[in-house]
Structures are given as structure tokens and as C-alpha cells.
Amino acid sequence: MKCLCATTRRAARTLTQYYEEKLRPVGMTPAQFELLANLFHQPGLAQGALAHAVGADQTTLSRNLKALAEKGWIAAGKEGRTASYELTATGKAAWKRALPRWQRAQSEMQAALGPDWERVFETLENLAAINAAGPPTGSSSRSSNRGTSR
Question: Has residue 2 been placed in a domain?
Fold first, then answer.
């Protein structure tokens, strides 16, 4: 039986394991790399905007940010009730050390997918946008989809 959810989850696990292997020598996970990349390109990003950018819930994001702060890679600021984050010098150096490994992983994935790379990437972007935009057309609400696979 074809199941988009199961296949996507399997592909996500495979890709995550691949990138974990590539980033492990610099002591970084793919999730940490993604957060550092966002903060490198958008210093002072508020926690809510960062959660939206990486598609993470606040609990997961808070846990990941705590790990980055413990490594000394990010510093938190606060304006009123809004927390914001930026890379420390150590964090910038860590991200720059990891960047060539990530670039190599990207190139290897592009080569593996060949001419399908752009189509696959666009399809995944479209899937990610469904979550951001709400339920797919034809669904009455998110709750009606609980416990089912699409």
C-alpha cells in the first residue's frame, strides 16, 4: 500500500541519519545546524519567529536552544516578554566549521537524486507549506485528521 506519511517519515529518517553522520565530527546535529544557520543569517531572531522558520513547537525549540546555550553557541536577549537569540563568536565559528560538511552532504544528495533534485526539493517544500497553511483542501479541520495517515 502506498502511504505518503510512512514513506516521507522513512525518507526523513534516512536523510537525518545521513546528515548526522556528516556533522558528527564537528559535534553538531542537523537540528543544531539548522538553528545556527537561521541565527547566522538573521541575528536577534525572536523565539516565535525561529520556531516558525524551523517548523518546531515551542517545547522542542526551547530544549534545542538550551543545548546550544550550554555549548556557548548562542546568547539570549529579552525585550519585554519576547526572547531573542543570536550567535556568539563561538557559535559562529562552530557553524562555519560545520558549513563545508553540510555543503558536501547537500552536493552528495544532489548527485544521488540527479535531475530529480529540484523536483524533489520543491515537492518537500510544498509538503512543509501544507502544515504552515493549515489542512489540505477538502479537510474540514485538523482534528478530523487525527489518527489517520494522508
Answer: no
